[in-house]
Amino acid sequence: xxxxFFHQVHLADAKGWSLPWLATTFLxxxxxxxxxxxxxxxMVDRFRASRLLPYYLPPLGLAMLMSGAVQSSxxxxxxxxxxxxxxxxxxxxx
Length: 94
Description:
- By secondary structure, the chain is mainly alpha-helical.
- Helices cover 83% and strands 0% of the residues.
- It is built from 6 helices and no strands.
- Helix 3 packs parallel to helix 6 and helix 5 packs antiparallel against helix 6.
- The mean pLDDT is 75.
């Protein structure tokens, strides 16, 4: 995720996206992070982080595939949020 944020200008140029439009996609990212935080927090408390660990990569993989395959949409950014938040919760819950 850090690399994506550092290279967002290059990504926008490569995909043909405008920078102001790319900036608006971070609203969806922020909303998905908050929603995922509300869902995964109680799940980690109930099921333990180690049991939920295998499930945090699929949203990131799907987001990467969508970002790579779709030329004119930033929908993938919405899916980065759940993976980012789940990773943070899993690594801090150990």
